[in-house]
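Re: that chain you flagged

S.,

Sorry for the slow reply, it's been a week of failed gels. I finally had a moment to sit down with the sequence you sent. For the record, here it is as I used it:
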Amino acid sequence: MPDIARIIAVIENGTLSRAQLMTQYNNVVGHKGTTEKEKETLIAAIEKQLRVRFPKAATKIFGSRDATARDILSNIDSDILRDFDLSKNKLNNGVKTGKDVFTGKSFVHVNLSYKNSENVGVYFILNQETPTDELVAIVGRYKTGKEDPGEIERHIFGLDEKDRAVDTYRRFLAMVVDL
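Prediction finished late last night. Pasting the structure tokens below so you have them in one place:
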């Protein structure tokens, strides 16, 4: 496939129809002369356009918009459950959709959370505000109730720093998990 940069520019300019984007996708997937890296780059550009302009078509091809984030958090949750007893969690265990998706503030917002009997909680959020933004990890500690409510500590990580984010979440969990 010649001139990848030119093709990406055409895809990203927002003028291709749903059918044209689908054709581009099929062409990229089936093209033998394109490297895997070039295919990934082209497919990512097509997916972004479909997610922004044709969400139903994007879901049909790529799955739900939060599938990648849910997958990442499910793996983290499985690892956490091997090391921590979360049976006293005042919140639901597992990966949950955050309210920011329902209010329209975020395109993707899924989280893991734990709150103890003292109303001190921790969270690990994967958030993407718009289809064109990068997915980020947000890890924090907070307190609810009458005495000193609010955010205690909060860190934002790029996905390239996922291991640091997980380590921070583990450290926070160790501070608040009811033993």
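What I noticed first: The chain has two domains: 4-62, 67-176.

Talk soon,
D.
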